[in-house]
């Protein structure tokens, strides 16, 4: 193969609250246990808008953003046995030590030295990226690089949240917010055997797409938490749902999730929000023995499961990944601006 370049293009954050910028940086060299991946697609996530705004601090800076990454292996470290040059891979975004108690127990999101791609170590808005070989997950041939990249966050986070909810076949599930995560959550809940899946959103076009994936759409534009929960109950004979996934990150949507639960229901909060949420401890929790659960990131083992689902055709992102932009700061800033206004397409990927 041709020699690798010494330098590459990247899009980086240099200061909180400022636009990301174009940069030229060295191509990272893989260590003995690493792989060097040529980036073929890297997603733009709502979390990236939070990072740019400084709501979730990035360290160190300047830093290359982008935590949803797929590409092909172009070099391997001397001790790497499981990957070869030319392999199609997508990247687990949690770079961990691999040997602490949490890593051994499959709780790698709590590794004390763990670093997230595009948040605490350079990510995939670049032409190349180096990661430990264990972070590279085989990407099936039938799954595109763009779809594989987006699965590394939105789909994987949704699957982890459903697992945290202990969702079982026959459950009724409410998905609050059907953007990138929500579209995957609808499909995954159906694949895991949900009897009914409700999709709640203010955007009619997103609700229409969720309906195509098998959800029962609930338009909640202009409704407060109580009114939206009453709408859910009107569709469930007054009982409520077994599981509610909150994917938006607002006070009212967390309350909406809690108030939509049936007895013994579980509300899982995924959306980021730094405002305290008032909870009526008796009506929201104790009286129905309901649960409020936090869900953070996802696990490497879940990515393998996710790829199997995608390869079997159970997860389809053709209508979800709607836009592609070049590896240019101006184009990426435009998408981040739209995300801040809640006016972005369902999912956009960067194609270097």
Descriptive notes:
This protein is an alpha/beta fold and 352 residues long. It folds into two domains: 7-154 and 298-351, Medium-chain alcohol dehydrogenases, catalytic domain (Quinone Oxidoreductase, Chain A, domain 1, Alpha-Beta Complex); 166-294, Rossmann fold, CATH 3.40.50.720. It is built from ten helices and 18 strands. It has helices spanning 46-53, 101-104, 145-164, 180-191, 204-212, 225-234, 251-259, 281-285, 300-311, 329-340, and strands at residues 7-13, 21-26, 34-44, 63-64, 69-76, 88-91, 94-95, 115-116, 128-132, 136-138, 172-176, 196-201, 216-219, 241-246, 261-269, 291-294, 321-326, 347-351. The strands form four sheets. Strands 3, 5, 6, 9, 10, 17 and 18 form a seven-stranded mixed sheet that branches. It has a six-stranded parallel sheet with strand order 13-12-11-14-15-16, sandwiched between helices. Strands 2-1-4 form a three-stranded antiparallel sheet, with no helix packed on it. The chain is globular. The two termini are 19 Å apart.
Layout of secondary structure:
Blueprint: E1 7-13, E2 21-26, E3 34-44, H1 46-53, E4 63-64, E5 69-76, E6 88-91, E7 94-95, H2 101-104, E8 115-116, E9 128-132, E10 136-138, H3 145-164, E11 172-176, H4 180-191, E12 196-201, H5 204-212, E13 216-219, H6 225-234, E14 241-246, H7 251-259, E15 261-269, H8 281-285, E16 291-294, H9 300-311, E17 321-326, H10 329-340, E18 347-351
Parallel strand pairs: 11-12, 11-14, 12-13, 14-15, 15-16, 17-18
Antiparallel strand pairs: 1-2, 1-4, 3-5, 3-9, 3-18, 5-6, 6-10, 7-8
Helix pairs in contact: 1-10, 3-4, 3-9, 6-7
């Amino acid at each position: 193969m041709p020699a690798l370049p010494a330098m590459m293009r990247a899009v980086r954050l240099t200061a909180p609250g400022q636009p990301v910028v174009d940069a030229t940086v060295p191509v990272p060299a893989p260590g003995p246990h690493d792989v060097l991946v040529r980036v073929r697609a890297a997603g733009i996530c709502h979390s990236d808008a939070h990072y740019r705004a400084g709501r979730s601090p990035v360290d160190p800076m300047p830093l290359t953003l982008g935590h949803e990454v797929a590409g092909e292996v172009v070099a391997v470290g001397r001790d790497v046995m499981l990957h070869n040059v030319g392999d199609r891979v997508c990247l687990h975004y949690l770079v961990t030590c691999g040997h602490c108690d949490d890593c051994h127990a499959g709780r790698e999101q709590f590794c004390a030295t763990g670093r997230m791609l595009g948040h605490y170590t350079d990510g995939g808005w670049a032409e190349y990226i180096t990661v430990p070989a264990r972070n590279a997950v085989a990407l099936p041939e039938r799954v595109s690089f763009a779809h594989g990249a987006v699965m590394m966050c939105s789909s994987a986070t949704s699957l982890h949240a459903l697992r945290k909810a202990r969702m079982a076949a026959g459950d009724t599930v409410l998905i609050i917010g059907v953007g990138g995560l929500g579209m995957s959550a609808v499909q995954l809940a159906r694949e895991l055997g949900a009897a009914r899946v409700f999709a709640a959103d203010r955007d009619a076009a997103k609700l229409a797409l969720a309906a195509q994936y098998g959800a029962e759409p609930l338009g909640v534009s202009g409704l407060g938490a109580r009114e939206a929960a009453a709408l859910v109950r009107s569709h469930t004979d007054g009982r409520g749902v077994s599981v509610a996934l909150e994917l938006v990150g607002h006070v009212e949507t967390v309350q909406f999730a809690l108030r939509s639960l049936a007895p013994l229901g579980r509300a899982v909060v995924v959306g980021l929000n730094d405002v305290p949420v008032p909870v009526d401890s008796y009506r929201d929790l104790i009286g129905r023995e309901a649960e409020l659960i936090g869900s953070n990131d996802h696990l490497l083992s879940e990515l393998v499961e996710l790829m199997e689902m995608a390869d079997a055709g159970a997860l389809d992102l053709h209508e979800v990944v709607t836009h592609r932009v070049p590896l240019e700061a101006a184009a990426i800033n435009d998408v981040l601006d739209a995300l801040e206004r809640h006016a972005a397409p369902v999912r956009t990927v960067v194609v270097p």
